[in-house]
Amino acid sequence: MSDHSPCLNCGACCATFRVSFYWGETDSAPGGDVPTQLTEQITPYRACMQGTNQPQPRCVGLMGTVGEGVRCSIYEKRPSPCRDFPFHGENGLDSPDCQRARAAHGLPPLPSNPTRPRLIPIVAA
Ligand code: SF4
């Protein structure tokens, strides 16, 4: 984890998109990790993080203030969309989704062609 990762003072992705995933990722299922009590069932086969299935999403797991300082309270048990989210700078690539989330919160875009060290999303608890 880089202390300079912009993810640590952003968190916009966790407060912009619906975070949905196969229900088998919850700890209600064998081998699942995501705390069920922090999820909402949205179909017989899919769940989402509580707080993200609404017009102004904000994941229940997000702690802190978007654009100032944030962390994920279930970092080690976060669902696959969080692990797979293409954050800005990953593999040296820009992330349109990251920029879109930042814009939705009035945050300025991150510079294009970000440099290494590799950026890591939301710090562990
Ligand atoms: S589980 Fe953690 S990383 Fe995923 S949206 Fe919620 S706060 Fe963000």
From TrEMBL:
Domain of life where this protein originates: Bacteria
InterPro entries reported in the protein's UniProt record: Puta_zinc/iron-chelating_dom
Protein name: Zinc-or iron-chelating domain-containing protein
